[in-house]
Design brief:
Length: 296
C-alpha cells in the first residue's frame, strides 16, 4: 500500500487553493513506503545527482555524500539525524506537509527542519505544486551540514518569528528573502555560477534553466532589493540572485530588520523580471517565454 499524506482541508488564499495539514510532528512511517515510493526516490535521486555535478555548489554535493544518501532507498530520518547531531546540531522532524508560517519559523529558530514524510506519485515525477519528501530532503537537508548556512537558516527562523509579530508587510518582505536565497539562490564559486537553492536542485528543468538559459536575469545579491522583488510560483524564476559566499547571507541577517521593513513599506515592489540601474548584472535576461502576469 502506498503511504498517503493525511490532509486536513483546503484553504483559499492569495496563492490559490492550498492544502492544510496537521501541524503535528509525525514519526517517519518508513516501513509503510511501498516499492513504488522507493522507486520514485531512486529515479529522482539518480537523475538529479547526475545533473547536479558541475551545476550544484560543491558544499551541496559534498554534504549529500557525507550523509551517505543513495538511490537504493528513501533515507531514514534517524540516520540523517545522527549525522546532523554530530555536526551542526540541526534535526529533521517529520511533518504531513506545508506548515503555517509561525510554526515553520519556530522550528527553524530551534534548529529543527520540517521534512514532509511522503513522496510524490510516479505521475508527478517532473512537477508537484507542493513540497514533498524529495524536495524537502534531497533539496534542503544537505546544506544543513554547512555551519554558516545552518546558522543562516536559524537566523531566518528567528527573523520570521519577529516579522510575524510585526504584521503581514514584514512577512511579505522576509518571505521574498527565503524564496530568492534558500529556495532559488545561486552562488558564485571559483569555477562559475552554481546552484544552492532547494527549489532548483530538486527540479530537473530549473537546474538547467537557471544556469544555461538566456531568459532569466542573474543579479548580484542585494538584500533590500530582494525584499522588494515579487516572484513566480508557477513558472521558472525570471530572476535569480547570486551570492558570493554563505557568509554574505549570514552577514545580511545581522542588522535588525524592523527599520528596514519600515523603509521598504513606502517603496513599490519590483516585478519579478525587472532589472534596475543599481543592479550588479551577471546576465540580463532575454525574457523569452515569460508569462506577462502572475508574479506573487
Ligand atoms: Fe523548500
Amino acid at each position: 500500500m502506498n503511504a498517503q499524506p493525511r490532509r486536513v482541508e483546503h484553504q483559499q488564499t492569495d496563492k490559490g487553493s492550498v492544502p492544510v495539514y496537521t501541524t503535528a510532528v509525525v514519526e517517519q512511517p518508513w516501513d509503510s513506503y511501498s516499492p513504488a515510493d522507493h522507486a520514485t526516490w531512486a529515479t529522482l535521486f539518480e537523475r538529479q545527482q547526475q545533473l547536479l555535478v558541475g551545476r550544484a555548489c560543491r558544499e551541496f554535493l559534498d554534504n549529500q555524500q557525507h550523509f551517505g544518501m543513495t538511490p537504493d532507498a528513501i533515507p531514514k530520518f534517524e540516520d540523517l539525524n545522527r549525522v546532523l547531531a554530530g555536526s551542526t546540531g540541526w534535526r529533521i522532524i517529520g511533518v504531513e506537509g506545508l506548515l503555517p508560517e509561525l510554526t515553520f519559523f519556530d522550528h527553524l529558530a530551534n534548529r529543527r527542519f520540517p521534512v514532509t514524510w511522503w513522496i510524490r506519485k510516479p505521475e508527478q515525477i517532473d512537477y508537484i505544486a507542493e513540497p514533498d519528501l524529495f524536495h524537502d530532503l534531497f533539496g534542503h537537508v544537505p546544506l544543513l551540514l554547512n555551519p554558516v548556512f545552518a546558522d543562516y537558516m536559524q537566523a531566518y527562523g528567528c527573523g520570521g518569528v519577529k516579522a510575524h509579530s510585526l504584521g503581514p508587510d514584514a512577512l511579505v518582505h522576509l518571505t521574498r528573502l527565503y524564496w530568492y536565497t534558500v529556495e532559488f539562490g545561486l552562488i558564485r564559486q571559483d569555477d562559475g555560477l552554481r546552484i544552492y537553492g532547494s527549489g532548483i536542485v530538486s527540479s530537473k528543468g530549473e537546474s538547467i534553466h537557471c544556469l544555461e538559459s538566456a531568459a532569466p536575469n542573474r543579479i548580484g545579491f542585494d538584500m533590500r532589493r530582494i525584499m522588494r522583488t515579487r516572484y513566480r510560483i508557477d513558472t521558472y524564476q525570471k530572476t535569480y540572485f547570486v551570492i558570493d559566499s554563505f557568509q554574505q547571507l549570514m552577514d545580511a541577517t545581522d542588522p535588525d530588520f524592523t527599520p528596514i521593513y519600515r523603509e521598504l513599506a513606502s517603496q513599490e515592489s519590483i516585478p519579478a523580471g525587472s532589472v534596475l540601474q543599481s543592479d550588479n548584472v551577471y546576465n540580463r535576461g532575454s525574457g523569452e517565454g515569460w508569462a506577462a502576469d502572475g508574479d506573487v
